[in-house]
Amino acid sequence: MISIKNVQPLNPEALFDLLKKEFSDYLNTALDANLNVEYTHVYDVVNISFPEITTGNAFSLVISDEAIEVNNHVTDANYNTELLEERLIDFLTLKAG
Question: How far, in Å, are 36, 76, 81 from residue 59 at the CA level?
Answer without folding.
Answer: 14, 13, 10
